[in-house]
Amino acid sequence: MKQQDIKTEEKFMSHNAWFCTSAGIVCLLLSVYSLTNHDIEEMTILGISVLFYMVVIAIFIIKAGFPLKMYFKYAYNDEFLNTIDTNAYKHTSCAFGVCLLGVLYNNDAIPSEVSHANMAIFYLGIILLVYGISTLWQSRD
Amino acid sequence: MHNHIAEFRKAAGLSQQELADAISVSRKTISTIETSRFTPSVIIALKIAQHFNTSVEHLFTLDDGD
Hints:
The structure holds 2 protein chains of 2 kinds. Chain A is mainly alpha-helical. Helix content of chain A is about 75%, strand content about 0%.
């Protein structure tokens, strides 16, 4: 295995962890914020903020040489990166399971205005946030 | 499990990155092995031992709890 491949994997893992964490926070904020009543101006500001975030990420992907092809690889070649990736998936599955159980248990407490889209963004936010934080925490020096 | 990789590495005047490059692993692998947060496979343990021209038993020692 080439050392360059491992450095690419290391770089991808680091960037992906920060990307997942930030995207998770954005999704959670979006799902919670959209539940409360806001006028059209506030929702426009929210939309522009999310668009700004997406543009910043797109610029980063293009300029910083984010190795997108790594998303299509099943596993990391490096043993340690593969281990923490597997652990992060376990943490993510666990968090998602807890969320589902929480929703199941508090079914009646969830207001009817909460749409499926809101719930989907909330679940996505939880998944991304837990994966990102787990990866960052496990790969600390 | 304790290990003496950091001592061997420092004695050889190597950085974590240089050792990682020498045995084809990521720097974080070396970092987390040294802090005993990651237990490497036999292959990596043998590669490290081979690099320092020593045995795996000299690099890794079992704790009472192991």
